[in-house]
Amino acid sequence: MPRAMLTGNYAAGKTLALAGEANRNARGCVSGAYPITPQTEIIEVLRAHEFVKGRVVPVESEHSAMGVCIGGSLGGARSFTASSSNGLAYMNENVFAAGYYRLPIVMVAVNRTLGPPWNIWVDQGDSLSLRDAPWIQFYVESHQEVVDTILMAFRVAEDERVLLPVMVAMDGFVVSHTLMGVELPEQEQVDRYLPACHVPHRLRFDHPATVGGLAWPRETERHRKDIQESMERVPAVLTEALDAFEQVFGRRPKGPLTAEHTEDAEVVLVACNTMARTLRNVVRERRERGEKIGMIAHKLFRPFPRELVRQAIGSARKVGVLDRNHSPGSGGIFWQEYATSLQGRDLLVQDYLVGLGGGDVTPQYIHEVIDDLLARKHAGEPVWEEVTA
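^ thats the sequence. predicted structure below, dont judge the formating
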């Protein structure tokens, strides 16, 4: 694979285009496209690509962008888009529809703070507001992970044991607009990695059907249970996707989460996206001081890998979760999931709200978090990072 200095947005757009092109011998590809900062470059890259059998459809809103993807996927095409912030919020109705229709759409979510007040910097509140939608969600920390995870997203989403849409989230500006060395795959490699997209319930002229009709309560209950069972199959399908990736590309991307220095850790910190990179350096420094500090870089949010979390924590007695998001009246969203996953164990699980609205999550502050966690006897209310206006 050639290596080049690329922005995260460009890498995402090119990867989506390669995946769409890989379906040219089947029913092609369709993308609904509407720009919003900081994901606009993704749409520009897609619009510039000349597909053999596919179309990028410019529309008047994010709601319509997902509507185009729904139509394309119901027609059997490989479908994808990108959005951010209030664009995701405006798309909300069709995000749920895509999941409930069991359509394997892939969307890149470039995390940006929801407004008002208007803010264009990174905050995970936009994508995590959709945590109850029937979508698989990944959170990636580097440009290379953007590329690799998008390809795996199509492989998992289109597997007939899953058939659910996938969201790949990356930090706005910190990843979307910065340059980093990236190995972009060749088209031939993507062709080998991604089987032809087959949507078994696609609409057909020879077998007319109604989509989205009225369902009775028991039918809806069965439908939701089917989605839950598909979510439960995701980890096994993802492992197969990782195995296939390694065979085609010669390297293995990260799985649902990565535990680092947790074997003997007394304290474990949890982070995702680019915060994990900063945390990694701080943990390394504290280990060099002789402190038993470990970390988890969390990638797969839905389905939430509870058993992997329990295994990764090991024998640690204290867990600190760094949340770049906030659920009003509760706290951080990743913290809620970790507290639920670890219930029944004699553990202190503390939430730290950091970097909201795009504030810097500095090594100094993570050191302060570790010091606070080490000194704690009991978990308390979520701790807010102290900032000055």
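The longest strand covers residues 78-83.
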